[in-house]
Specification:
There is one protein chain. The protein has 152 residues and is an alpha+beta fold. The protein has 5 helices and 4 strands, in the order H-H-H-E-H-E-E-H-E. It has helices spanning 6-17, 23-30, 34-46, 82-90, 116-127; strands at residues 66-74, 95-100, 107-113, 133-140. The protein has a 4-stranded antiparallel β-sheet. Strand 2 and strand 3 form a beta hairpin. The protein starts with 5 loop residues before the first helix and ends in a 12-residue tail after the last strand. The mean pLDDT is 91.
Length: 152
Amino acid sequence: MIELDTTDRRILRELVQDATQSASALGRKLNLSQPATWRRIKRLRDSGVIKGQRLDLDKEKLGFGVSVFLGIKLATKGRVSLEDFERAVSAIPEVQTVEHILGLYDYRLRIVARDISDFERVLRRRIMTLPGVGDVEANVLMSEERRPGPIG
């Protein structure tokens, strides 16, 4: 674990909001020189605190108006390896995330679809045909508020 000071935390908060900011622009906001800002960002990357950058796409503008969280309980845990299930479900383009969880279900998936009938097609033709799928529970996302995370 790396020690983060107040400036490191401010850098992280800024980068969470807009990861495309240059070290120069970020330094101006935080009253730091460009080289000092760059060194801090490099240290955060090298230590693994910053793991990468992601492109945030507007799913609705791309035609995917429905997001569904799907809980899946595997019916035959001994017969289907978790790796095989994860590989198969990850190959489905509508599946955005695959989370192996502890609780009532074994997996939680985030699925995007054009509409409810499109989701039904994905569920019937792609998800339910995977080996080992038992019980499923679907929760349609109504709204979402993004939180920056535990930066402090």
